[in-house]
Amino acid sequence: MRSGSAFGRVLGDAGIHLDGEPESGDLCRRVKIISPVAFCELDQRVDLVENFDGFTENDATAAAAYWQKSKSLAKTIISVNREANSHRVHDLFGNDPIFLSRERYLLLDA
User: What is the pLDDT of residues 64-81, one digit of tens each?
Assistant: First the structure.
């Protein structure tokens, strides 16, 4: 769970809530990181859906279902994906009117 680790370092333990942890404190002020199963069961709006490699590492049908669910829940979707897989996010969703901004960067290992 890379994003959980990154958010934990920036926000501290009190700033995040991981899927499966007991609910305590003010959850509406915390970043919630949930599993794909919990995500598919959500029926409430969220501020942001963040996805790392999920769209391109799943088959196109699963990626499309995840995309539709993301659009139904959040106004903003941030997706960071490799382009070396069998399909790219742009190939899957580039014609969707909600796909407003796309940027490509070459990432090099340090």
Answer: 888 889 989 988 888 887
Our separate counts of H helices and E strands in the chain read 5, 4
Q: Provide the token pair at 84.
A: 């070396």
SS3 92: helix
Average predicted confidence (pLDDT) for the chain:
79
Q: What is the pLDDT of residues 16-49, one digit of tens each?
A: 888 888 877 777 778 888 887 888 898 889 888 8
Q: What is the dihedral of CA 51, 53, 58, 61, to 10 degrees?
A: 50
* Largest distance between two CA atoms of the chain: 42
**Nearest CA-CA partner of 79 in 101, 46, 59, 62:** 101
> CB of 73 within 8 A of CB of 45?
yes
3-state SS assignment for residue 45 = coil
Rounded to an integer, what distance in angstroms lies between the CA atom of residue 4 and that of residue 2? 5
pTM of the predicted model as reported, rounded to 2 decimal places = 0.68
